[in-house]
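Course assignment 3, question 2. Fill in each field.
Student: A.L.
Task: Predict the tertiary structure for the chain below.
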Amino acid sequence: MPGVFIGHHVVVGDNCIIHPHVTIYDHTIIGDNVVIHAGTTIGADAFYYNSKRDRPVWYKKMKSCGRVVIANDVEIGANCCIDKGVTHDTIIGAGTKLDNLIQIGHDVVIGTNCIIASQVGIAGATTVGNGVSLWGQVGVNKTIHIGDGANVLGQAGVTASIEGNKTYWGTPAVDAKLKRKELVWMGR
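Answer field:
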């Protein structure tokens, strides 16, 4: 659609819809039946810096050498940002659905059939298993693993790796049943 930018060496599969003002950086790979909504940016450089305080400019940008790979049947909402990898690819698995206003950091691997709601941020080099649900405003720390089938409720902060097939809530995210009991006891 109007205003779309597609960089060099980009592969776009069959039956894709790319809405207005989407930016797709070089070397991105997009599978079949993918929908990307307006204003989304795919493949921007990672937020990845070398820090030394003994120089006038403390933060020196490190090179992002990976790509973004989006599998078949993925839908990406409006105004999302998916950074390319630093040391390997950032990957969005088949059937995964992203709401609007989501940030996916460098080297993140998201499994198949995940659902990720608005304003979720996933920091670099994190692995999200298959069938994971991350609801609105969940924040996910870097270099951790979220197990298959995990369900993380809104505004939770995932600060360390969590097991699959459980529901989590709070910051740091813990079993939602325990968090609810804790809130009842605090109220008393």
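Instructor remarks: The chain has one helix and 26 strands. Helices lie at 176-187.
Grade: pending
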